[in-house]
Amino acid sequence: MASDRAIERSAVPGIDRPAAAVRPRRPLDGFIRRGLFVALLVGFTILFLYPFIWLLSASLKAGAEVFNSELIPDPIMWSNYAELLEQRPVLTWAWNSVLVSVLAAVTVTFSSALVAFAFAYFRFPHRDLVFGIVLASMMLPGAVTMIPNFLIWDFLGWNNTLVPLWAGNLFASPFYIFLLRQFFLGLPRELFDAARVDGAGYLRMWWSVALPLTRAALIVVFVFELKAAWTDLVKPLIFLRDVATYTLPRGLKAIIDSSNIGGELHFELLAVGGVLVTIPMVIIFFLGQRYFIEGIATTGSTGR
Q: Do 274 and 230 form a contact (C-beta atoms < 8 A)?
């Protein structure tokens, strides 16, 4: 009778089976899974880091040993960095890159945030149509607008200056408008209604309510544009002619071009330039990593 009741008890839905009937999880299985995950993670980390490690190693080698298979230079040629600084105005190029990158990132972040807030908050006729036209402009290749942009900046007298490299961002970016608009749409409208009751204007609501609540998204936009402007080569090639106005990518291109007209190409110096271009972006990412990941994760998890 007792066994029959046990069988009936196990067959009734909603009644748990005895603990002895549950198969215990072996600690070894979890250890193996964790070990495989860590091994896979370390493997991909090495795979992604290897190009930069090779570049760093090449920058510390003699010219004849740049392409050998050794990752640890022997001897270590720290003089390569000093030699590049002596031969080329690298510090001037670096300052130009910093100036252009920061101005481009700041201007596009705030201009795109302002336009995105307008699309998210105001409800005007044909709003979705206008927003669709803004998004459609992303389909326009940059090569199509290259000549008109050059003619405009040349007419304004700013050709061969740093202004064309960042001033266009004063008019926002369609991609960043789309990204920030999704964040603004996720904010409770009651917050802005309360701000209106307190007497805040539209710019005050944008500055004091919307921007602080979307800080992670703003940092994502800032880092994206900072990286894009820092590594951009096309605009400097079009607008810059004087060596003193070069950015770092344009300066490295000038070093390569000088070798094509009879000069000797020192690959170790090019590697030094590559390291100087790469390291600042690595530092910027680690400084804003928490906000960067938060912004990307919030966009994906909330579906905004």
A: no
Query: Quick one: average pLDDT of 145-167?
Result: 93
Per the rule left: phi > 0, alpha: psi between -120 and 50, beta: everything else, 242 is: beta
Instruction: Write down the pTM of the prediction.
Output: 0.81
Each residue's pLDDT tens digit, 216-249 = 889 889 999 999 999 999 999 999 999 999 999 9
CATH 1.10.3720.10 applies to domain 88-302: yes
pLDDT interval class at 304 (50, 70, 90): very low
Spans of all domains in the chain: 2-58, 88-302
Give the dihedral sign, CA 217/223/226/228.
negative
Closest C-alpha among 234, 236, 235 to residue 244: 236
Measured CA to CA, the distance from residue 79 to residue 62 in angstroms comes to 10
Q: What is the mean pLDDT of the chain?
A: 85
User: How far, in whole angstroms, is CA 225 from its chain's centroid?
Assistant: 7
| Alpha carbon distance 86, 106 (integer Å) | 32
Euclidean distance between CA atoms 206 and 111, whole angstroms: 12
Q: Tell me the C-alpha distance between 229 and 248, whole Å.
A: 11
The answer to whether 297 and 216 are in contact (CB under 8 A) is no
pLDDT in tens, 42-54: 999 889 889 999 9
Q: Residue 271: in which H helix or E strand, if any?
A: helix 267-287
Candidates 269, 202, 249; CA nearest to 63 is 269
